[in-house]
Amino acid sequence: MENVLRPLVVVGGSVVLTLVIGWATDLLLSKADQRRHETPLWGLLRRARVPYQLALCSALLRGSYDQAELLEKHHTGIGRTLTLVLIGSAAWLAIRIAAAIVETSYSRYAHGRAHRDPARVRRVRTQVELIMRVVSAVVIVVAAAAMLLTFPAMRAAGASLLASAGVLGIVAGVAAQSTLSNLFAGLQIAFGDLVRIGDTVVVDEEWGTVEEITLTFLTVRTWDERRITMPVSYFTSNPFENWSRGTPQMTGTVFWHLDHAAPLEAMREKLRDILRECPAWDGRAHNLYLTDTAPTTVEVRALVTAKDADDIFTVRVAVREEMIRWLREHHPYALPRVHTAHVPEGSGADADAPERSRGPGGRPSLDKSGSGRR
Fold it and tell me: How much is the pTM?
């Protein structure tokens, strides 16, 4: 009877003690979260209760399973299994705690600078996410190594592994050259401020917003909801446009090809009226000029400003549409036209030239320069 009750007491006591300690810890974190709303640390730490209780329970069982004599035949296997579970849950808990601390630090920084320097906030956000990925990778590697070292065969092979570490490192470096280049490129992007999460970029003639940056790839969300995934090494070895670098404010242009009789002064006044009614215009600047001429049309350019890339697109579309509508309704003569004129029959210019330049068969004959032969 004692051989049955002892393992039940050991296992049951460990589970009950784990639940009690976990409940008490969660209660303390909940009260701390209610008292200090300005920091999300305590609420984020509550998300780690599952790995916390798992690590606590495995630690209690690992320290007391020797007292359960019912499973003496599997004593070594049970101890090794509990050790592996303890190492894995401890690594999981460490990642959750590190994420809570880093996220809290970023939240405090972003709360104070969100309105003054949004570009700096996006830069820090990119760095924070990449740092967390590196920390998670390091913790996972260390935990995996610790798990392997629990097996005697792996400890015996440790000396030979260390002796061949140099050769293996060279071979792995050559084999993973592309991966390593992307890894270092990701770190360069994070701390070199080349591109940040939320930046508006133009890559391979595709306009979009940076949605995700990892240590190896970068995702751009285009205006039509497509996702373009590219290796981060592309951004360190190829030119690209970053419309959000420095300040997000932008200047845009709108072009029209109109008739030579287009009313430029009236168009300038109409441009001011359109911009006053456009919420996306930031009020910094606007102008309208005639920038080029052609035999049949003139080129008119309007310059407008907005606070970011999304708003500049809205302003340009609104100005282009409203100006064309206004011209069509009030100044239709300003729209491009094809000019035709009737030539009187028998005029001297048209009657003499064919007679002077007619070749065989009655057709005009031209030399290489395009002029008629005499």
Answer: 0.47
